[in-house]
C-alpha cells in the first residue's frame, strides 16, 4: 500500500456551470511552482464535484460545460512529474445535478420530504442561497450505479492513479427514499421501525464501500481509498473500510483545536495511518479569497504532527485553473517547518499512564480531554477489552456503559492496584439500576433537579471557592455505604417553571445540604456524580475543571509529565523506539473567538517552562529541536528535570538515552 504522504493539500473545485472558461488558464508549470512553493508532497484533485460536473472527458457522467480539456489528467501529470502524489476526489452525498436528474435517489425523510443540509428544497431560484446547502443523495439505485461507473472510468483512464477520495459518505443517518424502502422490504426489514432502518443503512453503505473498493482493486492494487465521514469515533463500523484515516477538523469553525488529539490517539491505538486536516481559509470550505495567517497555519500543522498525524491543508482552486501563489506561499511557511520536524513526529509510542475509556458521546469525551489538555495531563485511549495494566489510572467520562466482561476486567485491574475516576452515569449497568464497580455507594436514580450546587470538601477545594458553586446539570443520586464523602450537594428550592421561578436564571440553593453526595472515594476509586465532562464542553467553567482535576489527583499521583504552561499550552511526551529517544512537544497559542471563527493571531513567547518527565533509562543529552541546541537537565532515578528557555508556537525537546 502507498505510504501516506505527510504534507498534503486537499484542492476543492466545486464549480458552477454559469462560470465561463473553466480550466482555461491551467498551466502545468504554474501548478508545479505552487506545489514546490507549498512544500507539498500530495494533492487531492477533482474528478467530480458537488455540482455533479466531471473535470475529465466522461461517458458515464457529464463534463463541465465550459471545460475543454482533461483537467483532472493534466493536474495528475503535472504533480507526478515532480514527485507529488495526486489522489482523485469523487463526490457522493452532495451532487446537485444528479439530484435533479434522479429524484428517486435523493435521500428522504420518513414522510417523504427531501433531506437537505442548509436551505430549503422548494426555494425560488431567485431566493438567496445559504452557505453549504445541498440535497443529500442516497448511494442506491441508478445513483449508486453512476458512482460505480465513474469510479471504473477514473480507474481505467489513469494508470498511475494514487488513490480515491469519496466525499460526504454515511450521511444522512437514516433514509426512506424509494430505493431504500424497497431494499428494506427485500431484506425483511420494516421501514416503520427505526432500528431496521439503521440496520439497512449499514447494509447499504457496506455494499457501496465494498463495491467501490473492489473496482479500484481491479486496476490499482496499492492505491489508497477513503470515504469521508467515516472517521467519527462513534461510528466504529466504518473505521475498517479505508486504507487510512483523514480527520477533517477545520479547527477555526468546526469544534476548535482540542477535537483532534483524542481522535489521533484513538486511531493510533488501532494502528491506523491517519492525517489531520485544516484549511488555508479564514473560515471553512468554499471560501474564495479567504486566508489564514502563516503563523496560525504553522501552529496548526505542528499541533497535528505532535499527535503523530500527517497533514492536509484545504484549498480551493480558482475556476480558471490558476493556482493562487499567495496561498502556497502561506502553506509553504507551514510545510517548510513540517519538513524540519517530521523525523521526530511519526512512529512513536505513548508514554502516558493515564487512560481514557471513551463514552462515544462527543461532548463527554471532548469535554474531558479538553480539561486534561488544558492541564497538560497527557493521556492515551484505553480499551476495556484489552490489557489495562500499563495505566496507573483510568477515567470513564459521564456515560460509559460497560458490558459485564469489561466491568469485571476493570474491577480486577483495581484489585491489582489500578485506580479509577468515574463521572455521571459511568459505571452503571445498562439498565441503570446499580454500579458495576465497587464505588462504596448504591445507586438511587437521576437527579430531580435541572441543576444544583456543590460544596467541595478539603481534598477537592484547592483553587475553588469555599461556598456552594453552581453545576448546570443535576447529579446522579447515590447513597453512601462505605465510601468517604468528598463533596456535598446543595439542592435548589425548586426547578424553574412558569409557576415557580426566581430571578433571571437558576433557583438559589437551600441552606442545608442534601442527603446524597457530589463526590465520594472508596480506596482507589473516585466517583463524581455530575456529568461534569459534558458540562465543561458546553459551559467551560474553570471551577468545574479544577474540581475534577483535584478529584483525579487523589488517585493519579505520578503523572509521566509535569509542565508549567498556561491553560492554552499543550504538551505531549512520547518515545521513539527506533531512535532510542524521548520527544517532548510543547505548544502555545491563544485562539480568540471572532464571530463564528476561532482566530490565532497572538503567539507570545512563554519563557522558562519548567518540565519534569518520567523516563525508563539514563538520558545522555537534551536537545532543542529544530534549533539543535543542547540544554541542561538533572536526572534522579527515573525523573528528569529541565527548563525549556522559550516556547513560541511549537517547541520540541529530544532526550537521547544511553544506547542499549
Automatic annotation (TrEMBL):
InterPro entries in the cross-refs: Beta_galactosidase_Trimer, Class_I_gatase-like, GH, GHL6
Gene3D superfamilies: 3.40.50.880, Glycosidases
Pfam families: GHL6, Glyco_hydro_42M
CDD domains linked: A4_beta-galactosidase_middle_domain
Domain Beta-galactosidase trimerisation positions: 372-433
Name of the molecule in the record: Beta-galactosidase trimerization domain-containing protein
Organism from which the protein derives: Cohnella hashimotonis
Lineage: Bacteria, Bacillati, Bacillota, Bacilli, Bacillales
Amino acid at each position: 500500500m502507498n505510504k501516506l504522504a505527510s504534507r498534503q493539500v486537499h484542492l476543492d473545485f466545486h464549480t458552477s456551470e454559469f462560470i465561463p472558461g473553466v480550466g482555461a488558464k491551467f498551466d502545468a508549470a504554474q501548478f508545479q511552482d505552487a506545489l514546490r512553493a507549498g512544500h507539498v508532497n500530495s494533492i487531492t484533485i477533482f474528478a467530480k464535484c458537488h455540482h455533479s460536473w466531471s473535470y475529465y472527458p466522461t461517458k458515464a457522467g457529464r463534463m463541465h460545460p465550459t471545460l475543454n480539456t482533461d483537467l483532472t489528467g493534466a493536474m495528475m501529470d503535472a504533480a507526478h512529474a515532480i514527485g507529488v502524489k495526486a489522489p482523485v476526489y469523487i463526490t457522493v452525498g452532495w451532487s446537485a445535478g444528479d439530484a435533479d436528474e434522479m429524484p428517486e435517489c435523493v435521500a428522504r425523510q420518513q414522510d417523504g420530504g427531501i433531506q437537505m443540509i442548509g436551505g430549503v428544497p422548494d426555494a425560488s431560484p431567485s431566493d438567496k442561497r445559504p452557505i453549504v446547502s445541498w440535497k443529500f443523495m442516497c448511494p442506491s439505485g441508478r445513483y449508486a450505479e453512476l458512482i460505480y461507473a465513474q469510479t471504473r472510468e477514473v480507474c481505467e483512464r489513469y494508470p498511475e492513479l494514487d488513490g480515491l477520495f469519496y466525499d460526504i459518505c454515511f450521511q444522512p443517518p437514516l433514509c426512506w427514499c424509494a430505493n431504500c424502502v424497497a431494499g428494506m422490504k427485500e431484506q425483511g426489514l420494516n421501514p416503520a421501525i427505526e432500528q431496521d432502518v439503521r440496520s439497512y443503512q449499514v447494509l447499504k453503505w457496506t455494499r457501496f464501500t465494498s463495491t467501490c473498493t473492489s473496482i479500484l482493486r481491479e486496476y490499482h492494487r496499492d492505491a489508497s481509498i477513503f470515504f469521508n465521514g467515516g472517521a467519527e469515533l462513534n461510528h466504529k463500523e466504518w473505521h475498517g473500510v479505508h486504507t487510512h484515516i483523514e480527520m477533517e477538523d477545520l479547527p477555526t469553525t468546526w469544534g476548535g483545536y482540542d477535537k483532534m488529539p483524542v481522535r489521533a490517539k484513538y486511531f493510533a491505538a488501532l494502528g491506523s495511518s491517519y492525517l489531520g486536516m485544516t484549511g488555508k481559509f479564514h473560515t471553512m470550505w468554499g471560501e474564495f479569497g479567504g486566508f489564514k495567517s502563516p503563523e496560525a497555519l504553522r501552529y496548526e500543522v505542528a499541533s497535528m504532527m505532535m499527535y503523530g498525524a500527517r497533514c492536509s491543508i484545504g484549498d480551493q482552486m480558482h475556476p480558471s485553473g490558476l493556482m493562487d501563489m499567495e496561498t502556497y506561499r502561506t502553506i509553504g511557511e507551514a510545510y517548510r517547518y513540517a519538513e524540519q520536524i517530521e523525523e521526530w513526529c511519526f512512529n512513536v509510542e505513548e508514554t502516558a499512564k493515564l487512560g481514557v475509556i471513551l463514552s462515544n458521546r462527543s461532548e463527554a469525551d471532548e469535554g474531558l480531554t479538553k480539561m486534561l489538555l488544558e492541564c497538560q495531563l497527557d493521556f492515551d485511549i484505553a480499551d476495556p477489552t484489552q490489557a489495562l495494566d500499563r495505566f496507573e489510572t483510568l477515567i470513564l467520562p459521564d456515560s460509559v456503559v460497560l458490558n459485564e466482561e469489561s466491568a469485571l476486567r476493570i474491577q480486577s485491574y483495581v484489585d491489582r492496584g489500578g485506580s479509577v475516576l468515574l463521572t455521571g452515569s459511568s459505571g452503571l449497568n445498562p439498565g441503570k439500576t446499580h454500579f458495576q464497580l465497587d464505588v462504596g455507594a448504591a445507586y438511587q436514580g437521576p437527579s430531580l433537579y435541572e441543576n444544583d450546587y456543590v460544596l467541595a470538601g478539603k481534598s477537592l477545594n484547592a483553587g475553588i471557592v469555599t461556598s456552594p458553586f453552581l453545576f448546570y446539570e443535576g447529579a446522579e443520586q447515590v447513597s453512601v455505604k462505605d465510601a468517604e464523602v468528598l463533596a456535598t450537594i446543595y439542592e435548589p428550592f425548586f426547578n424553574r417553571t412558569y409557576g415557580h421561578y426566581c430571578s433571571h436564571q437558576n433557583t438559589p440553593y437551600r441552606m442545608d445540604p442534601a442527603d446524597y453526595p457530589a463526590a465520594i472515594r472508596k480506596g482507589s476509586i473516585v466517583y463524581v456524580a455530575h456529568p461534569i465532562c459534558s458540562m465543561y464542553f458546553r459551559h467551560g467553567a474553570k471551577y468545574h475543571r479544577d474540581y475534577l482535576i483535584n478529584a483525579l489527583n487523589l488517585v493519579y499521583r505520578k503523572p509521566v509529565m509535569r509542565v508549567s504552561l498556561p491553560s492554552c499550552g499543550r504538551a505531549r511526551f512520547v518515545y521513539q523506539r527506533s531512535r532510542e529517544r524521548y520527544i517532548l512537544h510543547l505548544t502555545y497559542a491563544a485562539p480568540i473567538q471572532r464571530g463564528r471563527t476561532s482566530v490565532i493571531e497572538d503567539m507570545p513567547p512563554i519563557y522558562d517552562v519548567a518540565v519534569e518527565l518520567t523516563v525508563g533509562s539514563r538520558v545522555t543529552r537534551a536537545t532543542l529541536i529544530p534549533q539543535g541546541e543542547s540544554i541542561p537537565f538533572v536526572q534522579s532515578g527515573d525523573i528528569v528535570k529541565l527548563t525549556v528557555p522559550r516556547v513560541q508556537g511549537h517547541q520540541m525537546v529530544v532526550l537521547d538515552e544511553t544506547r542499549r
